[in-house]
Amino acid sequence: MITVVHIVNQFFAGIGGEDKAGVPVGVSEAAAGAARGLQLQLGAQATIASTVHFGDNWFHEHKEEALKAILAVVQEKQPQVVIAGPAFNAGRYGVSCVEICNRVANELKIPCVTAMHVENPAIGLYRDHANLNYYCLPTAETTAGMADALKALAKFSLRLANGESIGPAKTEGYIGRGIRRLEKTDRPGFERAIDMLLKKINNQPFETEIAMEVWDDIPPAPALDHVKDRNIAVITTSGVVPWGNPGRFKTYRNTHWEKYNIAEVKELEPGKWEAVHGGYNVAYMNKNPHYGVPLDALRTLEAEGVIGAGKLYPAYYVIPGNQGSPAVMRRIGKEIAEDLKKDNVEGVLFVAT
Amino acid sequence: MSKELEKAGLPVALVTAMYPVAEQVRATRIVKGVSIPHPCGDPALPAELDARLRKEIVLTALKALETDVKEPTVFSPNIA
């Protein structure tokens, strides 16, 4: 018999609506609220051992506490699969569902599945997580799609619990996360590539094996007037760091940024700085770190009054950009933007290698 | 990264030798760098000229920050 833990918000637990959004994490032994419908769909193959609920606001206001409490219940019950939602187009609920799934999958190594509408704001986070051990199924926008959602969740969760291998999003029907997986095929790459090329030339439909990221347009930030009166900061993905690499960057796929003081520094002397980056030859950068952080030029311009005195931010930001995933880089960009705005920085000189 | 900064309202002058890629991913203010391993300068030049080139690149970046753009726009430093 398969054991399931089902996780829902206060509304779907039958506790109440917005007035009850402040209730903390609670547990009902066996199926309660929406979980009863789920139990019907699971049939005799699986039992919902516990229904865990949380208030929509409480979860977000006490996130770590909430996740810890939920993880503790799951840990205790040791289910073969965890189901969260369906959240439809409810934003707070959707975000809770993907955050819970991500943590359970990572920390307890138990597969999870959730479900929501593709336009739920949590979908961006789900894609960012790109976690192989949890899935999100598409639902209708509202609870009108409840019956279908529960049916799909039940079916998918039984497959996860049975350890079945799950294929790509487009054949399995879950929402894609942009994860590329290796597949075995009988035909070598060049034959498949030539096939595709011929189809393209003949205006026939073909399907790429490596879907490229779609880049969205963003409205550019407004220009600065009188740059010399503005606070300017330097960011670089060149990997220039103080000698010894105190931030312990790897040469590829980094997931954090560092900020290094240059307040009293006139120039970056070779031997005191180094470039950590696996994607280009760092010899030039090591000889002259100004190729990545042009501090000498900035100091000259400061002396000439082109950059106002004290207007150059006293630290620069760095993450070696090599093989950085777009999702990670977006997060890093957001984090650095937040940090810069706290200190009233108004414009950025960004050196990318 | 640069797009997230722009989204947050911070104009970014992105110095890169891979400016066609920067355009392709829809970065906004793009400054042509010299080459991938040394965007801000050219080690083949004597130190003094190299420093002057780097200053020109930074000046171009500052000018880019002062320029209103509507779409990905490449700014070329005056490398003479």
Protein described:
The complex is a heterodimer of chains A (about 350) and B (about 80). By secondary structure, chain A is of the alpha/beta class. Chain A has two domains: about 1-170, Response regulator (Rossmann fold, 3-Layer(aba) Sandwich); about 225-350, no CATH class. Helix content of chain A is about 35%, strand content about 20%. Chain B has one domain (about 1-75). In chain B, strand 1 (about 10-15), helix 2 (about 20-25) and strand 2 (about 30) form a beta-alpha-beta unit. Classes of the chains: A alpha/beta (about 350), B alpha/beta (about 80). Chains A and B meet through helix 9, helix 10, helix 11 and strand 12 of A and helix 1, strand 1 and helix 3 of B. Strand 12 (about 345-350) of chain A pairs parallel with strand 1 (about 10-15) of chain B, so a sheet runs across the interface.
Keywords:
heterodimer; A: 353 residues; alpha/beta; six-stranded mixed beta sheet; four-stranded mixed beta sheet; 11 helices; globular; B: 80 residues; 3 helices
What class would the helix/strand composition of chain A place it in?
A: alpha/beta
Question: Superfamily at the CATH H level of the largest domain in chain A?
Answer: Response regulator
Q: What's the Cα radius of gyration of chain B?
A: 13 Å
**% residues in beta strands of chain A:** 15-25%
Instruction: Give the oligomeric state.
Output: heterodimer
CATH topology of the largest domain in chain A: Rossmann fold
The biggest chain-chain interface is: A-B, 56 and 49 residues
Question: Which range best describes the helical content of chain B: under 10%, 10-25%, 25-40%, 40-55%, 55-70% or over 70%?
Answer: 25-40%
Number of helices of chain B: 3
State the helix count of chain A: 11
Largest sheet of chain B: 3 strands, parallel
Number of domains of chain B: 1
Listing every helix as H and every strand as E from the N terminus to the C terminus, the arrangement of chain B reads HEHEHE
For the CA atoms, what is the radius of gyration of chain A? 25 Å
